[in-house]
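Need a sequence for this fold. Nothing fancy.
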C-alpha cells in the first residue's frame, strides 16, 4: 500500500536555482486567525527539479480543464487581468460570498 497525503492546498512555492519547493498545508481544526478563519498548518513539502515542476503543472492544468469541461468546477472571472482567476468547485458555486475577501492562493515568488 502507498502512503496518501491529503492537503487543503499549497501555501508557498519557492524557486532556488534548479529546484522548486512546494509547501502543502491543511486548515487547522482548532487554531484561528484574526478573521476567525482556520489557520494554515504546514504538512509536507514537495521538491521538484524545474523540469519536473513544469511537467507537473501541465498535467494539473489538463486535469483542471477536464473538471471544467465536465462541469464539476468553473473558473471564476477576475476583476483585474493581472490577478489570477481561481477555481470554484460545484460545492462553492451555491455558497454565499464570505464577509471578507480572501487573497488568491499564490506564492509571492510569482507576482
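Here you go.
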Amino acid at each position: 500500500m502507498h502512503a496518501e497525503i491529503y492537503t487543503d492546498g499549497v501555501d508557498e512555492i519557492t524557486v532556488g536555482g534548479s529546484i522548486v519547493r512546494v509547501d502543502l498545508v491543511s486548515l487547522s481544526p482548532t487554531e484561528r486567525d484574526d478573521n476567525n478563519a482556520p489557520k494554515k498548518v504546514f504538512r509536507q513539502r514537495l521538491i521538484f527539479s524545474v523540469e519536473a515542476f513544469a511537467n507537473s503543472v501541465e498535467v494539473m492544468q489538463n486535469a483542471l480543464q477536464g473538471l471544467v469541461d465536465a462541469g464539476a468546477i468553473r473558473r471564476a472571472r477576475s476583476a483585474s487581468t493581472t490577478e489570477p482567476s481561481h477555481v470554484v468547485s460545484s460545492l462553492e458555486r451555491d455558497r454565499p460570498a464570505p464577509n471578507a475577501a480572501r487573497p488568491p492562493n499564490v506564492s509571492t515568488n510569482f507576482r
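For context: The CA atoms of residues 73 and 91 lie 9 Å apart.
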